[in-house]
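Quick one: structure tokens for this chain, please?
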Amino acid sequence: MASPDDPQTNGEVSGTPIQADISNADLFRFLDNKWKNRKCEICGEDSFWTLEVKNDKYSVIPSMAGDSEITVLGGRVHVGINLICQNCGNLKLLMVHFIQKWISEHP
């Protein structure tokens, strides 16, 4: 059994800090070009989606089975920007590395 002091089990994050270094203008340019169906697939509403932002940084969520340099609980993860449906709470997770790749290909 792992020790509570083991960084593999206590939720410590190693590697690159978990944050999205994407400007508002680039993110909205990506969304305008890529997000074709803004209707929520859970509740069916064409509702207002929100981004979580704190101190000009987007709230991000690690997603398992990634190939980035970020590790959480000993496993590599993808990092995603989350969009939340204000009608039902459905969460969309947009992978940061896809957004960054698109931005670099569409300056």
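The chain is about 20% helix and 30% strand.
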